[in-house]
Amino acid sequence: MAKDREIQYLGLDLGTTGIKLVYNGGKAQETIPSYVTIFKDSLLRLKHGGDVFVGQLGIEKQRYIRADGHGKTGYILNGGRIGDMELAKEALKYAINKVGADKMRLVVAIPVEEMCFQQKNQAAGAENTEAVKSLQQIISECEKVDACKVISQVDSVAESIGVPGKIPLAMIGDLGGGNSELKICFGDMYVEEADYRQVNDKNGKYLAGNWIDELLCGLVMDLRPQYKAKKNFDFEFSKEEAQALKEAYGFVDGVEGDPILHNFQKKDTLYRDQTIDVYDAVKNACTAIVEPMADKMQSLAGTVEAKDQPILNSNMYFTGRLAQLKGLTGAVEKELAKRGVRNVKIQVLQNPNYAGAVGAYQFACECPEDKW
Ligand SMILES: Nc1ncnc2c1ncn2[C@@H]1O[C@H](COP(=O)(O)OP(=O)(O)OP(=O)(O)O)[C@@H](O)[C@H]1O
Ligand SMILES: [Mg+2]
């Protein structure tokens, strides 16, 4: 169908750590940290030349909010749900303005968790959840936006790989910073609670990148007594340092790598040249997600009819930046085989940071005029 030339399409994946944007014929792909700081204090506003800071600037400005009433600061998502609408609104406005088009059609991908709450509410005769309602409200208030749709992140990934056109049925895992969502996709974009699983522990804690960082931080700190006793050397280790280690070296048991040494050279400390061996800590923290993930995948695979099982087993895909952990797919396949789900080959999508936003973008471009 011929489209109005002036309309620009935007795919936006609202992630816990980053908002991913795809526009301009799919050529522009950008990530904005999902962090916002709002100053509500006139002196702060004056001193910093503004009141809203999104992304990296938002992170940098957070330290200026020292007292209640100064303003607010934080990530916009928490555990797959939108935490603070005011922060989300500023982040969305910022992202939409980045595109620089006068007329825009927008598809926003949100966590399956949030989508599921919304549909359950609708099925029960209620309106959209507050969060989704507010999201749509916020977006429709942006004068540049001509039309908008909200879909789940995993379904937008399914769109990017061609479910159901090229692939009839798939299991997709979106492994991010805040949560790891798994869903069976048929291409209908409808979220049935039975078709999706969150990877969580028995206390309901979401197991994803941030959780591994916390675990790794604890495991490294556990090494302190050993280094104190042997080398008379003490240290501090932060979650940010854990995240950097995971991103640079993260791997799971089953692939052997080179030694991983953490050096404190950048720290202003007496021990700045000291080095600690963090190989086992990195391996153990990253491996901890394998079994819970296989448990949830087994449970999800069990919901598919036996005749469709072979199709599903050869169409399992991981995306999200955490999917880049070395050895993850092989380790999960092994765990699945132990649980009786055999002949599985999990593929990591080529562009794991943007698969959700690319799918949202494609969906926007292909959406028939009367379906907006
Ligand atoms: N090379 C890497 N290897 C392993 N993990 C990585 C790598 N690069 C980034 N990560 C981790 O991936 C996580 C972020 O993934 P992603 O950007 O897909 O999440 P998100 O979309 O912001 O969050 P969510 O999908 O949970 O809402 C973080 O924990 C980050 O540290
Ligand atoms: Mg994500």
Question: What do these coordinates show?
Answer:
The protein is 38% helix and 22% strand. With 372 residues, the protein is α/β, with parallel strands linked by helices. Among the domains are: 7-157 and 354-371, ATPase, nucleotide binding domain (Nucleotidyltransferase, domain 5, 2-Layer Sandwich), CATH 3.30.420; 209-287, ATPase, nucleotide binding domain (Nucleotidyltransferase, domain 5), CATH 3.30.420. The strands form 5 sheets. Strands 3-2-1-9-10 form a 5-stranded mixed beta sheet. Strands 13-12-11-16-17 form a 5-stranded mixed beta sheet, sandwiched between helices. A 3-stranded antiparallel beta sheet has the order 5-4-6. A hairpin with a 2-residue loop joins strand 7 and strand 8 (81-82). Helix 6 (153-161) packs across helix 14 (355-366), helix 7 (209-221) crosses helix 9 (239-249) and helix 7 runs antiparallel to helix 10 (279-287). The mean pLDDT is 91.
